[in-house]
Amino acid sequence: MVRIDSATRVVGAPPAAVFAALVDADARAAWLPPAGMTARVDRFDARPGGGYRLVLTYDDATVRGKSGSNTDVAEVRFVEIERPQRVVEETEFVSDDPAFSGTMTITWTVEPDPDGASVAVAARDVPPGISKADHVAGMTSTLANLDAYVRRRD
Question: How far apart are the C-alpha atoms of 31 and 48, rounded to whole Å?
Fold first, then answer.
């Protein structure tokens, strides 16, 4: 059975502003890490076939990350970029632990809403080492960060 984790939030900015934050390296580094983490984006090429390397670091140095010490490293490839409404990515964690192996497909969807934009994120084929509750909490936190980020910019 295919596992899909998802979250949705109405964000207080126009869809174009939200979409711009999805395809900008500095923006991603600012809003993508969930609470308790920071991010660094090591290369970034926002086009189908392009991608980026994301390094997430836990604020608590005692938390064991997927990639060792307190970090999660992900290699991400953009599969689809449909302005201004959809971004599809394939993500693979850099990890020796088979519980985090495989390709997870993440789809971001941005739709107009009377209050700004409705943003949905869905992750398909989530590695079994990631608990559903933790993943949905992280996605919810990330969407709150995105909302705060685009409101400051708008």
Answer: 22
pTM of full prediction above 0.70: yes
Peptide bond into 84 cis (omega under 30): yes
List the domains of the chain with CATH numbers: 4-153 (3.30.530.20)
* pLDDT, averaged in runs of 10, over the chain (154 residues): 94 97 98 96 97 96 90 97 97 96 97 98 97 97 98 83
End-to-end Cα, the chain, rounded Å = 41
Strand, helix or coil at 51?
strand
3-state helix, strand, coil in the chain (%, to 5): 25, 40, 35
Q: Which of 103, 153, 148 is closest to 11 using CA atoms?
A: 148
Q: What is the DSSP letter of 100?
A: G
